[in-house]
Amino acid sequence: MNKTAALVAPFAVLFVIAGRSNAVSQQPRPDAANAAPAPYTMTMGDMMNTLVQPRHAKLGLAGRATNWPLAAYALIEIRQAFAGITKAQPKFRGLPVAELVDAALGQPLNAVEAAIKQQDARKFAAAYAQLTQGCNACHQSVDHPFVVIKAPDASAFPNQDFNPGH
After folding, report:
1. What is the 3 state secondary structure string of 94-153?
2. What is the pTM of this model?
3. pLDDT over 90 for what percent of the chain?
């Protein structure tokens, strides 16, 4: 037995013993056996962090790389994310989410789409900056000025190549 195994073995035995004694002491309650798990409802922050923010970053990275097919796909994805969010949570802090999204992001998303169709990197950069400003304006309007979005300066996706073929 090597030194590492000799050091780890006693702890492994303790964990097994602790797990068995814990399992015996925590017999299921009769009412818990039939209880359905409580469904988890995503908060607005959850949806923004998991559905929108990564797509915003990927859109920016794809546009910077002039990978227009990927940018077009990321644009579709971010629009679909907002459509799903407006259905899942129609109001946030008493404000209509669909109207907030449309007012802050409608024109910038259309400008991004036009730049992608024209495959124009300068127009894309300007439109993407407007989109990012729209995100921050929306955050201001819902009393979240501390949530400041910016264009990505590095990829958070090390397992995705944004420059294929370049």
Report:
1. CEEHHHHHHHHHHHHHHHHHHHHHHCCHHHHHHHHHHHHHHHHHHHHHCCCCCCCCCCCC
2. 0.76
3. 72
Query: Could you give the dihedral angle defined by the CA atoms of residues 87, 57, 71 and 124, in that order, rounded to the nearest 10 degrees?
Result: 110
The two tokens of residue 122 are 């300068």
> Cα dist. 138→50, 99, 123, 141, 145 in Å?
18, 10, 22, 5, 9
Q: Which residue, 107, 105, 115, is CA-closest to 149? A: 105
Which architecture, in CATH terms, is 44-141? Up-down Bundle (1.20)
- Encoded tokens for 75: 């644009």
Q: Return the DSSP state at 156.
A: S
Express each pLDDT in 19-30 by its tens digit: 544 444 455 566
